[in-house]
Amino acid sequence: MITAGIDVGAKFAKVVVLKDGVVTARAKALVGFDILKSATEVFDTALKDAGVSRGDVERVVATGMGRSAVLHKAPINADEAVSDVVADAAGAYRAVPTVKTVIDVGAEEGRGVKVESGKVKDFVINERCAAGAGTFIEAMARALELKVEEMGPLSLKSTNTVPMNAQCCVFAESEVVSLIHSKVTKEDISKALHDAIAGRISSMILRIGVEKDVVLIGGCALNPGFRPPLEKELHASIIVPEFPEYVSALGAAGIAANPQR
Amino acid sequence: MTVTSQVKEYPSEQLKCWEQAKNLRKNYYEDYLHAHEKGGLRWAGGAWSFSSIPAGLGEDVYCVTGEPYGATIAFFKDFAAKCHDATEAAGFPRTLCAYMRNYWGSILLDKFVLTDGSVVDGYPAPDFIWQDHICCSHAKWYQLVRWLEKQRGKEVPMYSVDVSVGYPDDFAPEEDYKVNYIADQLSDGIDWLEKVSGRTYNDKLLCDAVWNEMRSTSLWAEVCSLNQAVPAPLDEKSMYSLYVLGTLMKHRPECAAFYETLRDEVKDRVKRGIAAVPLERFRVITDTQPPWGFLRIFREMEKYGAVSVGSLYTFGLIGMWQYQPDGTWIPKPLPAQKPRTREEALQAIVRWTMHKPEWAHFYQPELKTKMMESIVKQWKVNAVLLHYNRGCEGLSVHIAENRHGLIEAGIPVFPFEGNMGDERDFDLSGTMARLTAFFESTGLKKLKE
Questions:
Q1: B74-89, pLDDT tens digit by residue?
Q2: Phi and psi dihedrals of B306, rounded to 5?
Q3: Buried-state track B8-27, b at ≥16 Cβ within 10 A, e below 16
Q4: Hey, which residues does A134 pair with through a beta bridge?
């Protein structure tokens, strides 16, 4: 049985194709203004990589903030849409079967999900604040005139702890500018920013409680500077699975394979 | 529309007394507006105030209670936005009680909104203010109203009752010193009312009003208790339009009469298995005032077969209840006899009001959690939706502790942020996305688009 999951996120669309439960292709691309068009392009790429056509795919499940753009809409014609929370739980369970807590930090949102055998027990979502999502790191990278992918490795070089008091993306940017003027190094500022976002995410996660194994997924999981301060805040080691940004799409593909779940 | 075939569909029909409720509310605001044309008096104060006391000044005394008026403004989002602008331009921060800001905005704009959304020029100033102090905002609200009216050249006298005596033990007689503390203030208030109105106080009208208030609030509890039935005969969105009468005129005979009619009709719906939501399969309760400009979230819930059967707020703001030793609630029975004297009436209404469930959590969050747990059990509720209401410090105080207590009791909880009266604090699409995730996490799927 061939199924596909498509995660239409705030910044990237990700597709995973499963054949008899095994991943045969992954693809991702930036989401443009025309969500369906962007999603279709990445969907077609994944199908091509898997060597199958749309007709070969028995079921497609969509997730992510843009999921309604592809639900029952040609040419993707997703059969079902599920929330990010449900897809996170299902995907993390496939990636790490011992998972109990999922932390998903994407471009737009940070989420925490308590999981039991792949099902959601409880969840929490960062509400209306960029300071708890990947956008925060991107905005701060701009302020530091760095590429976003440079931020994490740079932060790991820092040995100092610089307090970052502002809990808001806008005010944090002002604080970064003040730190630059105070001759604080980019390494230290970068670490301070990662500490800040880790503090914000962890305070949210603690609302649902931390139970091992803890799995970090989403685009921010690719940032090596994010996991250490988060582990410190949560007093728990964190597992980052392979291809963490695809875990929601993997969950959606798994749900597609098991419609009577 | 697609409906999953396996889900049972209950019969449903509109409430027959719906138009009657609408007219009562419409007439209430119009009576206030035109009171002076008929030689009557106007007063202003909170929905929690002892409204049966000013009733002793005559049958032509009309009030506008502040919170329901603030909610009415919130429903008409364009007018509400103008009120917010006016209040903020006058220097008041947007973190204050949203009802209060809407109310002040209406005065600042010198406009009055009616229940159909029409806006009348000239805010009708009250002749006096009769208020009580249930929370910090209620304590300051009408001081500012006085000040605003003074800017417009009108001196409005104000009387305020301090009610900070705590929530009484449900299984012991009310302590006399607490009762007297409030009743004495009401007694002094009657002298004050005579002085500021120039009228002679009528104790018979007081006794009638107190009895009406007891009947109205007990009857509303009876209506709510009928919602324990499966399927629920009422949904909370509709209940908002019904309970509101108690917040406007709980002391008036037409309110008690309407609740009697409603009680009989709801009883009949239960008997015939009439559902408010035909596809009911999941029951929730909410908490605190809803975001009034976004009541469509209740319609979205229905697409999942979810019905909100009420809340501590809709049950307990107006409804009066009695705890049973087994932890269940019953509508508070009326006293053996109607009060016959001023003293009896004041004592009776204070003893009665002290048990208002919505008073409890101002003192102890554990009491509110306990009440919500009782409702969950008794009303066969599957989950609780908690509105972290930025617009009301009073009713959302300790709400995170309530969430924690409910979760510890094994009850699924969905918290969402919003504001009852200021739409700028509510994210509709974000809330709907989270609600969808919550329903999916409980195993629900959308039954119709």
A1: 999 999 999 999 999 9
A2: -100, 135
A3: eebebeebebeebbeebbee
A4: none
The number of residues making up chain A comes to 261
User: Do B441 and A119 lie within an 8 Å CB cutoff?
Assistant: yes
Mean pLDDT, residues B123-137: 93
Closest Cβ opposite residue B427 in set A119, A121, A128: A128
Contact B440 A82 (CB under 8 A): yes
Find all residues with CB under 8 Å of B410, minimum gap 6, and list them.
none
Q: Provide the ipTM.
A: 0.72
Query: Closest approach of chain A CAs to the CA of B405, in angstroms?
Result: 13
Distance between B81 CA and the closest CA of chain A, angstroms: 21
Question: What percentage of chain B carries pLDDT values higher than 90?
Answer: 82
Determine whether the interchain pair B427/A120 forms a contact, defined as Cβ–Cβ distance below 8 Å: no
What backbone phi and psi angles, to 5 degrees, belong to A191?
-65, -40
Nearest to A102 by CA among A244, A7, A225, A5: A244
Q: How far is CA B140 from the centre of its chain?
A: 20
Contact residues for B188 (Cβ-Cβ < 8 A; gap 6+): none
Yes or no, beta carbons of B427 and A127 under 8 Å apart: yes
Q: Which member of B417, B427, B441 has the closest CB to residue A123? A: B441
Q: Is A122 on the interface with B (CB under 8 A)?
A: yes
CB atoms within 10 A of CB A37: 11
CA pair distance B59, B97, nearest whole angstrom: 32
Enumerate the residues of chain B whose CB falls inside 8 A of the CB of residue A86: 437, 440-441
A 63-82: CB under 8 A from B? 65, 82
Instruction: Tell me which of A175-189, B103-117, B120-134, B150-164 is least confident.
Output: A175-189
Distance of alpha carbon A161 from alpha carbon A207, whole angstroms: 26
Q: Which pLDDT value is given to residue B393?
A: 85
Of A84, A121, A128, the CB nearest to B437: A84
Q: Is the separation of the CB atoms in A248 and A87 below 8 Å?
A: yes
The structure's pTM equals 0.86
Separation in Å, CA of A261 to nearest CA in chain B:
9
Q: What is the pLDDT of residues B50-70, one digit of tens each?
A: 999 999 999 999 999 999 999
Kind and range of the H or E run holding B440: helix B428-441
Q: Count CB pairs under 8 A between chains A and B.
A: 33
User: How many whole angstroms separate alpha carbon A234 and alpha carbon A100?
Assistant: 14
- The larger pLDDT score, comparing residue A159 to residue B384, is at B384
**Pairing label, strands B321-323, B329-331:** antiparallel
Q: Please count the CA atoms within 13 angstroms of the CA of B174 that sit on its side-chain side.
A: 22
Sign of the CA dihedral B378, B379, B380, B384? negative
CB nearest to A125's CB, from B407, B412, B434: B434
Written as six digits, the tokens of A27 are 């693809």
Q: Which segments of chain A are extended strands (E)?
A: 2-8, 12-19, 22-30, 59-63, 80-81, 101-105, 110-116, 119-125, 214-217, 238-239
Residue of B nearest to A65 (CA): B433
Which tokens go with B279?
Answer: 């596809």
CA B75 to chain CA centroid, nearest Å = 15
- Tell me the per-residue pLDDT of A102-153, one tens digit each, with 9 for 90 and over: 999 987 788 999 999 999 999 998 866 666 777 888 888 888 888 988 999 9
